[in-house]
């Protein structure tokens, strides 16, 4: 039975690596996969999913106004696919998550979405919130804080290493960087710990 999967993580957990490996496993067995990634993520160049350990694959890009059910139907006219992979799934709109759910239910093709759970202010991305609501299965791609605990949060830093507490959920083209932390160290970085601790 086809399912909608949400593989969620914080920044720099290696979710693109996990996605590319899973897609490779299908292709190694002569099954085609269809890869999608967000147009706002241009780190790897347009239409490419790349991981920090150096592997990558071609992908189609999605934009907020795209109907992904229609896009996938158009792709299927060129040949069958065994699974659909979506990177940067936090940038899906709620409507697009429903479109992917219809692909799973009506076309019976598994959709594996990979994305960030929360932004630098600890708030769910709309795409991730809808995936958390609709996914048949969820898996956490884990990484650790500098203290060794599981990292679930992320801070945004400017190019001087100062933690930014304000700003848009999606920052494009800046020099900011992201560090994944456990919740306690995220609170400390955001200035939310009592004096005594
Ligand atoms: Zn920590």
UniProtKB/TrEMBL annotation:
InterPro entries: P-loop_NTPase (IPR027417), Thymidine_kinase (IPR001267), Thymidine_kinase_CS (IPR020633). One of its GO terms (molecular function) is thymidine kinase activity. Keywords: ATP-binding, Cytoplasm, DNA synthesis, Kinase, Metal-binding, Nucleotide-binding, Transferase, Zinc. Its EC number is 2.7.1.21. Its main location: cytoplasm. Zn(2+) binds at residues 145, 147, 182, 185. It is found in: Cytoplasm. ATP binds at residues 9-16, 87-90. The keyword Nucleotide-binding applies. Belongs to the thymidine kinase family. This is Thymidine kinase. It comes from Tritonibacter scottomollicae (Epibacterium scottomollicae).
């Amino acid at each position: 039975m086809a399912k909608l999967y949400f593989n969620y993580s914080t920044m720099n957990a290696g979710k693109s690596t996990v996605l590319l490996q899973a897609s490779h496993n299908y292709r190694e067995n002569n099954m085609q996969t269809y890869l999608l990634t967000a147009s706002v993520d241009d780190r790897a160049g347009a239409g490419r999913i790349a991981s920090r350990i150096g592997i990558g694959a071609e992908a189609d890009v999605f934009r907020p106004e795209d109907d992904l059910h229609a896009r996938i139907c158009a792709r299927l006219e060129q040949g069958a696919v065994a699974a659909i992979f979506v990177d940067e799934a936090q940038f899906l709109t709620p409507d697009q998550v429903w479109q992917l759910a219809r692909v799973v239910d009506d076309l019976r093709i598994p959709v594996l979405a990979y994305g960030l759970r929360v932004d630098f202010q600890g708030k769910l991305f709309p795409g991730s919130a809808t995936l958390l609501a609709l996914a048949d299965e969820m898996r956490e791609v884990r990484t650790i804080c500098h203290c060794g605990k599981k990292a679930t949060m992320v801070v945004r830093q400017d190019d001087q290493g100062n933690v930014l507490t304000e700003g848009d959920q999606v920052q494009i083209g800046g020099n900011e960087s992201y560090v994944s932390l456990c919740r306690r160290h995220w609170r400390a970085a955001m200035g939310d710990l009592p004096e005594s601790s």
